[in-house]
Backbone:
């Protein structure tokens, strides 16, 4: 890797060699850290001008589904303002392609959803860069921060697509794209420093290594609050093939607060029996000390609490393949045979990789260095602080399945269902979800569509509206498998219906009749009334599995079409609902 080759560098040859030697010994993460650190050394000069573009704004475009990209766009804008750079932060949803030609410095922060899809809000902009008459952007410069999850085979696909599309349109890259895994904060902050460092000739604040991640109400994935488990109840009736738990957690002493629609993130620990089996298979000493982000500790402790040991990620495979002499694994990685590996990894976990491709003489540290930190799992909050002050409620489906001859457990869901006893703490923090808020006007009507655990935020919404005495009409579509065993929070919905807090309730129990019926079918059956509610200004909320979210969106388009619009008009109608903040989705 040749890092230094520009003739106009201000370093003399000895310093260049020193820097080259230093950089060659670093891995990707260390390089990112070091570049952010070095950027900080130039922070004392007062000049704040964008090189060659004095006074020009940077346009920060975010494409988000669950709010992370938006939050980061806002952080970047704050940082830019602090060094005198003007910004214009825009949701891709409302950013027209015509503006692309006008804006000279474009910074993209975009996540990936579905199976490598852009967030809904980013689709139109991406399509305008890749299909039809593509705008010429020879006078523009750009940078891309891609958010993703390395356990998905199409990691950061949307960010990659924007990066390629902008370069193909002739725009100049300010710096290489950065792809972030679920623990994105440090990489994102480091990338921001690099973007601003590239754009400015100097900075105002003193030199500093990476700033700490933005704290969320004082608690974050790095510093969770131990919320004591007050109660848990299995909501699924006897005979159900699902296992959905209602959990009540105590926020007393935390100062934490949340709004309906927010997310509670749980930092779980791994199943102890899986940790034991993994250690046995690796033939590693439980007590061997390893260095982790949380400090030095015995391997058994690190594997239990700090590393992801279930989901297989590409970075894990790449690092492990480097240690392994297994040719098949190495060549699949080298060729980035995503499809082949995707098929192989389906239903498999880290324990299967180390079982199939053992490494002779593997050390505890080198194995730990292959793994990614255990990411927190997100859960839609199912309660309102107005109804249950000092508590947060969750609705969690326990994941248990069998594959390739092993019984598998979802890490966080079974941590909550099996391994945390009442009276014991659950490490949590709250993530605000500005994309999924009750209407500001408590008189505005709502259509809520939720399947399975997608019921959770709507329980929170109804609790809040009941406590506020809100006048707005509420219509709930709920779907699951069987009426007798899977009608989650049935008594509460029926009470709200009786009291009049819930105006209408429609249910779809898919497996109670021969022909499967889902919420999207019920919506179509009620097309006339749904359209009338939309015309009268109702807001729409959808929560649950991603496939359901897509099917519901299609139903909404069909409903508008059945009211006499063309398909294009119907799609525009739904897009306008989104743009005007009347269509919200929380799908996972
Ligand atoms: C914004 C948001 C809100 C959410 N809200 C909720 C909520 O309210 N309630 C809720 O229960 N969940 C919710 N989730 C999902 C939740 O965050 C977790 O992903 C879920 O609980 C699984 O986590 P886990 O650690 O138990 O499983 P993990 O250990 O992460 O395992 C899950 C993985 O196991 C694999 N898998 C699962 N089943 C099978 C199978 N049958 N065959 C093969 N492989 C399989 C899949 O690869 C899957 O990704 C939400 C997610 C998001 C992003
Ligand atoms: C249902 C779902 C599907 C996802 N699919 C992908 C994917 O295919 N590739 C990827 O890299 N990340 C994927 N992710 C991870 C998200 O991109 C990641 O969580 C990101 O931080 C979300 O940012 P946002 O809140 O701005 O949307 C997925 C996340 C969810 C919830």
Residues:
């Amino acid at each position: 890797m040749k890092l230094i080759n520009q003739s106009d560098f201000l370093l003399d040859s000895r310093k260049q060699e020193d820097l080259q030697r230093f950089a060659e010994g670093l891995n990707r993460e260390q390089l990112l850290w070091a570049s952010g650190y070095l950027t900080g050394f130039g922070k004392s000069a007062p000049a704040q001008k964008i090189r060659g573009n004095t006074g020009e704004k940077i346009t920060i475009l975010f494409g988000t589904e669950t709010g992370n990209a938006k939050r980061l766009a806002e952080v970047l804008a704050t940082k830019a303002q602090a060094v005198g750079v003007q910004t214009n932060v825009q949701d891709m949803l409302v950013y027209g392609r015509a503006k692309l030609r006008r804006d000279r410095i474009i910074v993209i922060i975009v996540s990936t959803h579905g199976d490598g899809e852009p967030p809904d809000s980013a689709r139109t902009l991406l399509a305008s860069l890749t299909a039809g008459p593509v705008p010429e952007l020879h006078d523009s410069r750009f940078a891309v921060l891609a958010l993703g999850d390395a356990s998905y085979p199409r990691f950061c696909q949307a960010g990659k697509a924007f990066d390629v599309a902008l370069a193909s349109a002739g725009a100049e890259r300010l710096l290489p794209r950065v792809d972030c895994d679920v623990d994105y904060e440090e990489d994102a902050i480091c990338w921001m420093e690099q973007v601003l460092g590239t754009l400015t000739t100097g900075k105002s604040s003193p030199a500093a290594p990476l700033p700490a991640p933005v704290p969320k109400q004082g608690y974050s994935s790095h510093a969770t609050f131990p919320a004591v488990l007050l109660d848990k109840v299995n909501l699924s009736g006897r005979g159900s093939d699902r296992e959905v738990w209602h959990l009540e957690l105590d926020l007393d002493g935390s100062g934490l607060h949340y709004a309906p629609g927010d997310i509670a993130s749980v930092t779980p620990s791994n199943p102890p029996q899986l940790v034991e089996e993994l250690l046995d298979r690796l033939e590693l000493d439980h007590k061997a000390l390893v260095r982790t982000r949380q400090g030095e500790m015995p391997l058994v402790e690190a594997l239990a609490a700090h590393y992801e040991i279930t989901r297989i990620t590409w970075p894990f495979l790449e690092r492990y393949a480097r240690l392994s002499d297994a040719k098949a694994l190495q060549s699949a990685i080298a060729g980035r045979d995503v499809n082949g590996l995707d098929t192989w990894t389906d239903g498999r976990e880290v324990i299967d990789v180390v079982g199939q491709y053992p490494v002779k003489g593997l050390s505890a540290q080198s194995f730990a260095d292959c793994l990614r930190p255990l990411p927190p799992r997100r859960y839609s909050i199912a309660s309102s602080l107005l109804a249950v002050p000092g508590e947060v409620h969750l609705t969690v489906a326990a994941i248990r399945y069998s594959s390739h001859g092993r019984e598998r457990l979802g890490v966080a869901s079974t941590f909550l269902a099996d391994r945390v006893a009442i009276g014991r703490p659950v490490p949590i923090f709250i993530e605000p979800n500005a994309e999924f808020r009750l209407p500001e006007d408590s008189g505005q009507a709502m259509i809520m569509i939720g399947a399975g655990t997608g019921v959770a935020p709507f329980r929170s919404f109804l609790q809040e509206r009941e406590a506020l005495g809100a006048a707005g009409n509420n219509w709930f579509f709920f779907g699951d498998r069987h009426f007798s065993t899977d009608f989650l929070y049935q008594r509460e919905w029926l009470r709200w219906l009786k009291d009049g807090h819930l105006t209408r309730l429609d249910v779809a129990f898919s497996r109670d009749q021969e022909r499967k019926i889902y919420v999207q079918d019920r919506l179509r059956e009620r097309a006339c009334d749904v359209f009338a509610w939309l015309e009268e200004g109702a807001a729409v909320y959808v929560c649950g599995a991603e496939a359901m979210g897509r099917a519901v969106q299609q139903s909404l388009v069909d409903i508008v079409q059945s009211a006499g619009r063309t398909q294009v008009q119907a799609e525009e109608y739904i897009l306008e609902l989104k743009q005007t903040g009347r269509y919200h989705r929380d799908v996972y």
Remarks:
- The pocket of flavin mononucleotide (ligand 2) is lined by residues 64-69, 111-116, 119, 147-149, 152, 154-157, 182, 184, 546, 588 (CB under 6 Å).
- Residues 1-9, 39-49, 202-215 have pLDDT under 50 and may be disordered.
- The chain is about 40% helix and 20% strand.
- The CA atoms of residues 419 and 431 lie 24 Å apart.
